[in-house]
Design a protein that fits this description.
This protein is α/β, with parallel strands linked by helices. It contains eight helices and seven strands. It has a seven-stranded mixed β-sheet with strand order 3-2-1-4-5-7-6, sandwiched between helices. Strand 6 (232-237) and strand 7 (242-248) form a beta hairpin.
């Protein structure tokens, strides 16, 4: 059984298709002795597509397992963790493999937007469970449907909360609600690790403005939002394409 996070093929390999078309047009322009501008345009597009493809395949590689951006998250190694917007399990597997004594609740709406992001197949819960089984962590995980803006848990239910590339899909009101709910369900002293897409110039170069969602903000914006929700920010960082904020509930 293999892990399949379900991100669409074009997200990882789409630039290679563009590169192939651009190189073909360049070859045609050379053979037919077309205008110089057609050669220059085809060549520039081809070079951009190759460079963007290398970015997607190596620094980002969204279909590969994720690595914990900081080892300071849940440093005790034990506790009950909540994954907000678990999707197909990339961050769930990341946490459970890095913290083998922890347990985790993987929460997602599992609505129509799930298929929009990860394609069609079995039910969202079945696909998430299949990945957890493939990673060998299903015994320490529970899957639950729910809205991160109104969490179905009692106050102080979790020792830690993680969320990767989910909160930044919400509008500002939803972000504020989610951060407030995160603080509510965390125990005092609990850790919160948030990972969102960074507003990197090179990421904009890779995707262009059409494929970047409107929630993209820089690290300072996210740090202030987390502080406004009452958290103490312990650490921030910007690995490729990402802003992470490690915070703690006082």
């Amino acid at each position: 059984m293999q892990i399949n996070f379900g991100y669409p093929w074009w997200l990882t390999y789409g630039h290679l298709v563009v590169a192939a078309i651009a190189f073909a047009l360049l070859a045609i322009a050379i053979v037919l002795k077309g205008p110089k501008w057609t050669k220059w345009l085809s060549g520039i597009v081809a070079l951009w597509a190759v460079a963007a493809s290398l970015v997607m395949l190596f620094p980002l590689n969204v279909n590969a397992k994720a690595s914990m951006p900081t080892q300071s998250f849940l440093a005790s190694g034990t506790g009950r963790v909540l994954d907000l917007g678990a999707g197909t399990g990339r961050s769930t597997i990341m946490v459970l493999q890095a913290r083998p004594q922890a347990t985790l609740v993987a929460l997602d709406l599992f609505s129509e937007s799930f298929d929009m992001h990860f394609g069609h197949g079995d039910t969202p819960q079945q696909r998430l469970l299949a990945n957890l089984k493939a990673a060998g962590v299903e015994q320490r995980a529970t899957i639950q449907a729910g809205d991160m803006r109104k969490l179905p848990f009692e106050n102080g239910s979790f020792d830690a909360v993680v969320s990767s590339y989910a909160i930044d899909h919400l509008r500002r009101e939803g972000i504020n609600q989610t951060l407030a709910e995160t603080a509510r369900v965390l125990k005092p002293g609990g850790d919160f690790l948030m990972m969102v897409v960074n507003k990197d110039p090179w990421l904009q170069f890779t995707f262009g403005p059409m494929l970047l969602h409107s929630g993209m903000k820089g690290p300072l914006w996210w740090t202030e939002k987390v502080k406004e929700a009452g958290f103490q920010v312990l650490e921030t960082g910007t690995p490729p394409g990402t802003v992470y904020v490690l915070a703690r509930r006082p």
